[in-house]
Amino acid sequence: MAEQENASKDLSEGAANLILEASNKTAETVSLYAKTSIEAYSTIDHFIDLFWQRLPYICIAIVVFAIFYLLSKVFKLFVRKALSERSYTKQNLVLVLNRVGSSAIIFFGFLISMVIAIPGFTPGQLMSALGIGSVAIGFAFKDIFQNLLSGILILLGEPFKIGDDIIVSGMEGTVEDIQIRATFLRSPDGRRIVIPNATVYTSPVTVNTAYPRRRCQFVVGIGYEDDVQKAKDIIMTILDKDQTILSQPGFSVNVNALADFSVNLNVTWWVNTSETTMSGSISDVQQRVIKAFAEHGISIPYPVQEVKVYRGDPVVDSSAK
Length: 321
Hints:
Blueprint: H1 2-84, H2 91-117, H3 123-132, H4 134-140, H5 142-157, E1 165-168, E2 171-178, E3 182-186, E4 192-196, H6 197-202, E5 205-207, E6 213-222, H7 228-241, E7 252-258, E8 263-272, H8 278-295
Antiparallel strand pairs: 1-2, 1-5, 2-3, 3-4, 6-8, 7-8
Helix pairs in contact: 1-2, 2-5, 7-8
């Protein structure tokens, strides 16, 4: 009986110890959690207090940035009115001043706003941060910087302007806008073409509307039996009577080639695109040439092929002999 009493006592003491240890651990966990929660809440309270302390400065920074933003708009308006009215001012120069100047004003306003809103912030810190990551930024934004520089050089050099019809890298269209990153074209069939400025700057560009005088030409063939000089005189008379065709540079009609079916005449003249279009002038002259050739009996030959069908040798009836 004594042994049983001792065993029961040991079990009771062990259970009491386990309960005590569990209680201590629970108390430690609750205390640690409470301490962590208190620290978190105190941190949040600290940030809230800092926010309310900096709120007036943040509001002032927002107002300052809005003022600089409005100043950039006023700068654009001033440059547009001051320079666009002068006949010698280049159109792209206005775009450069508008975009680069307004961007500089906004960036300067951003720096001042950051100094006001963030305690201890200086522009030197921003420059040092950019300097640390300059290599990574250079690789990541290489194409962007290349297009940016090319866009500025295009706007300053002005190889073409908005409204010009150009051909670059096999793509043709009318220039709608020249931005810092890309050049926007409107294709003849009404589609928008966006070409990176780096491609435009490094590729040959054909400006179709650089000069108002444009050369028109087409080739017409006459038969070998026709009088070449008569055909040339007829065409020259048509060109001479057309008021939209320029007298200088002079128009001409020359034998271009002796083809298989015809003698080809190359007809060349110049027009002023401010008075007429190239396609319209070419179409009008071609119609007159067709009508005049028909009236004077001059043929315009075309290839003729003769097809013979072989049906085999005729069958001889031996019984007829």
